Every structure is written in structure tokens, then in C-alpha cells.
Amino acid sequence: MIRSLHRYCIAFTVVLLSACSVTPRQDGGESQAGAATAATLASWNDTRAKRSIVDFVTLVTTPESKDFIPRADRIAVFDNDGTLWPEQPASVQLVFALQRVKTVAGRHPEWKRQEPFRSILKGNLRNVAASGDAGSMRLLATAHAGMTSEQFAALVHEWFDSSSDPRFNRPYADLAYQPMLELLAYLRANGFKTYLVTGGDVEFVREVAQRMYGIPPEQVIGSTVKYRYSQTNGAISLTRLAQVDTLVDGAAKPLAIDRVIGRRPVIAFGNADGDAPMLEWTSAGDGPRLAALVHHTDAEREYQYDRTSKSGKLDKGLDEAGAKGWLVVDMKDDWNTVFKPASATTSAAASAPAHWA
Amino acid sequence: MIRSLHRYCIAFTVVLLSACSVTPRQDGGESQAGAATAATLASWNDTRAKRSIVDFVTLVTTPESKDFIPRADRIAVFDNDGTLWPEQPASVQLVFALQRVKTVAGRHPEWKRQEPFRSILKGNLRNVAASGDAGSMRLLATAHAGMTSEQFAALVHEWFDSSSDPRFNRPYADLAYQPMLELLAYLRANGFKTYLVTGGDVEFVREVAQRMYGIPPEQVIGSTVKYRYSQTNGAISLTRLAQVDTLVDGAAKPLAIDRVIGRRPVIAFGNADGDAPMLEWTSAGDGPRLAALVHHTDAEREYQYDRTSKSGKLDKGLDEAGAKGWLVVDMKDDWNTVFKPASATTSAAASAPAHWA
């Protein structure tokens, strides 16, 4: 209940602060089809990317269209890191996990001799930054083992309230890509149910998905650790164990979508080769489908990386996009805004380790 | 697309046939809070069970109540076998799996020497009927290995269209408990999101959950086999393997709820000791919760079984219900109708093996 109240206070604050931008509206509360127009996509330039999106949505939501898709089947899936918010120089989840490793290192003298802890404690973050979702899930599992789901959620919540991205000097929860928030709102207004399908820990991402993207917990699919269900003196708890259970990346993405949603998506957005199976699975459905990759081409406003990046590598996906009919969104050319305008009152103290190279 | 059309045709037929009963309305399409009254629960007698349900729903949905629960947090979970439809003399899924074993036995000469196949092929179903969800999942996994998700779904769909329960001489899809359909409708009308949490195969149950209960695929949580994601000559498929991945029973129920929904339910209904952890997990949440067991006390209209039943055993749950504040629904006393009135046109040829003893 306290957690719920906390969430509502945060949500209220976010609404106040984001009055000048798209408010991440609760999924499920969409208006009637046709009410939303392409004007919602104000941060998208009038290029092929935006036109492709609007044409597609119009095609499948116009009742007279031969490609009309009933509302119940309008499922759109989005990767999170690098698709809805930045993942450089390291994923936000990894920054969070590293801080916890340092906090609890005193209880683990053996870490001074064990990798990756030894390097982390010495401040050498190069290898761990390149270890991707698998690496950060292993760290999370180890560093947060023994916490209940509620304790973990409270810790994540608190961390988001007190941590900022050092380059942009803004809370991480402020760094959703504005064009993607608009896209989520546009799709919901057209009857789509929007899901996150992330390699990040499902509990970590759920804590921020509602306030950042308006996506409720049950529409977040993510990696998981193993849990223990226990009943001690009448108290029931789900306790996190030090072991990764599922890693939702690559081919595990379509498998997780099938298991949780049970319908093939109509729209899929990703940004890396690890998202390719999700896009393939979506594209292979009967009827029209929209699969797209966000291409990070904007070193000035965000980051520029693709084929040789150690995290969020996009190589094969770029080669195959043309042949597969996938839309490639060029961040520099297709977006006139990357982040919503900063509000001085939302910045918090910087807390991220700065030495990733 | 063909599968979708098929589904709509079926849905249309069901709507026509069930004009005299509660139509399983699509979840998510609920009316405003307050619009639904207890009158919806016409098949419930005016006993303590019905009053407890109505009082609880009124308590948590009245905005002025100190126990008011916001719409987004109104999650209700239901076991399937024995809670929403019969599970005796064997679960419907087991009947389906057995038929497949017989159909494909010619390709598996080794089954003549392997249990449980040997007994099944000889018509001795006693042990397999007592093997519960675990046994039927193992059979399903083996007998349907190598099928894609789509092929499996089509087979299940076809089977439901052509198979009937031999005792009631009605299609299995007609055998939802009418009071439970009314309860689902009543909860939805009061802003609850209704989920199935079943030990049955998630793909099997999804094929029938929409048309029977109005519950869409993404609100069905169930057991799973392992899958292979493969891309062959441009064709993408998820292929069922001969191995059970997760069995959603006992403590695995709250774990699966946490993983998929990410919120603790407000209401949980089950009928067996295997549902107890789901009820405990629900009851242990902050604020008011409703946990309930359907007690099979009606040999005449359905079945009578509890403490010594080989499947759907309810023993510890009955002992603990009082102390834990769980509602026990007495099928004989609390329900004035068990199944919706039969319609002559919906019966199909009986196909279930009859020798369970």
C-alpha cells in the first residue's frame, strides 16, 4: 500500500512536470480509433520514417481497409534499452547493479579475488560494460540475492529518485526518447496495446515503466532471476536467488512474447541485433506488419554507434533491414527532438560511475 | 488470419447460442464502476458465499471506502480445472492428450513397452487419470512434439469443435460453470482484470479461454513445454519440444503470477490444495483480499470429491480455510444452476474414453 501511494505521488509529480510534453497515459485508456492523428508525432520530422508509421497505422485501423486488424489483435512490442531510452555508455540497469555491488562489497570479502567484482571494485568497468544484458543480469542476481520482490522494488524506486545520468545531468527516468513516447501515445490512441520486451530484469524495468512510458507491470516482459516462495511464521515472500532464470534476448524474445502474450505482434521496434528475432517473428505473421530499428546516428544529441559497438551492436540487422522490409529510423534525420525539454527541478545528484573506457 | 476468422465465427456462434445466459464479454470492455449490481449473479443462491463476494467487491470499488482499490490494481485470478469447468473423471486436457496418443501410436512402436503409453493403449486409464497436471503435461509434450504453435492451436480448436463430455453429452466448451461465468462478468463490470492461472498447457487453455470465458490469450498463465525457435528457408516457427518447461501448480502459481502480472491479486479462486499457495499469496497482500475455494459437493449435478480424490484433491485447504479467512463455496448449496441450459444444437459426438476406474 505504501509502495502504491509512493507510486501515485511520483505519477502525480511526473504529470505536473511533463505538462509541456506527452504525458505517458495509462495503457488501456485509449480514445476511440480515428481520434488520434499523425499530429501526435510532433518530434518526428516529416521524413519517410514518420510517413511509414502513419501509413501503416492508418492501413490497419481503417475499418474499410482489407488489411484492417481488430482492436484485440493490435499488439505492439518495444525493446527498452537503446529503443526507448539510452543504453550508453552502459545500460541503466548495469549502473544500478554496480552501485549495489559497491554498497554490499563489505559483506563479500571474496569479491576482491573474483571477477567481475575485482575489476568493478577497482573501478575498471570496460569489460563489465561490454557484458551486456547477460552480464548485468548476473550482477543483479548476485548483488540482490536474498531480497524479497517488495524490497527489491523499493530499492529500485529509491535509486531512480536519487540518481542521474552524468552526461545529461538529468534523472534517468527523464531520459525516455520523446519521439518514442509520442509513438507509444499515438499507437494507444489507435487501439494498440503496448508491451516492453526487454533483456533487463522484469522487476527493475516495471518499477520505472509505468511512470516513464505509461506501461503497466503486466505489459512488461523481461529477464528474470530464480525465486524462492517461502512461508515463514505466516509471512509469505518471493525471495530473489543468486541465479539468472531467463535472459530475454535474441531468440528468447519471440519465445517470451508467445508465452506471455500468446498473439503475434503487429508492430515491433528494436535497435540491436539481439532484437532481430523479435522483428523476424513479427514480420513473419500473416497480413501487414511493421518492424523497425532505431539507428543511433546522433553523437551530438545522444550517441552514435552500430556495427562495432560492444553493447547494443547493430550489424546484421542493418544488412538485412532492406531485404526484410524493416524500417530503419535514423535518430539524427528523423527526430527533431530526442529528449523532452529539461526542467530544472527534476535534476538529482549524479551518481553513475564515469569510467567506462 | 484463417485462425482469426475461425475464432470470430466461433465467437459469433457462441453469442447466438448463449443469448439466454451470460455472454462471456471481452475483458477490458467493462462498463463504469457502479453499473453492475449483484443481480448479475443470478445463478448464486442468496447465501453467505454470494453476500461475501458482493460485500467485498462493494467495499473495494466504492470511492469513499477506506479500502478502495484503484482500477489498475484490481486483478482477479482463477484456477481453471475444477474452478471454472469440471475436472472429473479426468481433466479435459488429459482427454485431449490421450486421443492424440492413440492417433500417433502407429509412429511409436516403442510405446507398447513404455509406461504410461502401454497402459493407455490397453485402455487402463486409472493411473494416468491420477497423474494430474504433471502427467497430462508430460503426455502433451510427448504426443505433440514437433508441431508448431499454430499447428497445435489448430488441432486443439478442431478437437473442441468435435468432442463432447460423455456424461453431460455436451461439447466441453459448453461446460463452464454458469455461476463462475456470472462472477467473471460481475468482476469485469466492476473494473477487475480477470486472469486464468492454470496447471494446463497455456496454448491449450488459450484456445478455449476466449470463447468460453471471454478471457484473451494474454490473460492466460499456464504450464509450458519447451520450444525451439527456428528459421528455415525464410519460414519462422516456434516448435513444441517433447519436454515440459514449467508446471504451474502449487508454489509455482504465485511465482508465475508475479512474473507475468507483476502485481499481487486482489481476488483468487481455486478448488484444490494445489491452489493454496496462490490463495495464500493473494491473502498476504496489504488491505482487503478475497480468496475462495470451490468445494465440489454436488454428485447429482456435477461431482462430489475433496479429501481423498486422486485429482483435484482438497484436504489441507479445507482444514485451513477457516483460520485463513478463505471463503468456501459449496457447489450444492450456493449455486442454483451449475451449467447453462443445454441447447440441442451445440452437442457434438462423444469422444472421451469412458474407462477411468
Largest sheet of chain A: 7 strands, mixed
What is the largest interface, and how many residues per chain? A-B, 39 and 41 residues
Strand order of the largest sheet of chain A: 6-5-4-1-7-8-9
What's the gyration radius of chain A in Å? 20 Å
- Overall mean pLDDT score of chain A? 87
Poorly predicted ranges of chain A (pLDDT <50, ≥5 residues)?
Answer: 1-25, 28-35, 344-354
The first-level CATH class name of chain A: Alpha Beta
What can you see in these coordinates?
2 copies of one chain form a homodimer. Chain A is of the alpha/beta class. Chain A has one domain (36-357): Rossmann fold, CATH 3.40.50.1000. Chain A is built from 13 helices and 9 strands. The first copy, chain A, has helices spanning 2-17, 48-61, 92-104, 117-122, 126-129, 132-143, 149-162, 178-189, 202-213, 252-260, 276-283, 316-324, 331-334; strands at residues 75-78, 164-165, 170-171, 193-201, 220-232, 235-246, 267-270, 290-295, 327-330. Chain A has a 7-stranded mixed β-sheet, sandwiched between helices. In chain A, strands 2-3 form a two-stranded antiparallel sheet. Chain A is globular and about 65 Å long. Chain A binds chain B through residues 1-2, 4, 26, 28, 70, 72-73, 149, 193, 202-203, 206, 216-218, 220, 224, 227, 229, 231, 235-236, 238, 251, 254-255, 258-263, 277, 280-281, 284, 286-287, and chain B through 1-2, 4, 8, 26, 28, 70, 72-73, 75, 149, 193, 202-203, 206, 216-218, 220, 224, 227, 229, 231, 235-236, 238, 251, 254-255, 258-263, 277, 280-281, 284, 286-287.
